[in-house]
Design brief:
mainly alpha; 68% helix; elongated
């Protein structure tokens, strides 16, 4: 009995297609699991950012900053003696000081 090439093709081709389909199916499942993990991580990070924004807003309230500045900084209004004026004198091209 001789095995015809067409018979090998009709038996082998479905087996190859089935194996390839299973491999693709497992790969898709792996990628879906990874996507789900990344989505959970993204949601967690967004929640952390939301908390940090709330804390930042709380810490930067103007009345709180004013109270801390008056308590820890020795600030006073500027006096005229503290002001300086500077004039800009352009240097001619080719001339260096």
């Amino acid at each position: 009995m001789t095995v015809r090439p067409a018979l090998i093709l009709w038996i082998g081709l479905p087996a190859i297609v089935t194996i390839a389909l299973l491999m693709v199916s497992y790969e898709v499942q792996t990628l879906e699991n990874e996507l789900e993990r990344l989505e959970r991580h993204t949601i967690t990070q967004q929640e952390k950012i939301h908390v940090l924004n709330a804390e930042w807003s709380h810490l930067n309230r103007p009345e709180r900053l004013a109270r801390l500045a008056s308590k820890y900084l020795d600030l006073a209004p500027m006096t005229p003696r503290q002001l300086r004026t500077y004039t800009y004198e352009p240097v001619p091209l080719g001339y260096e000081k």
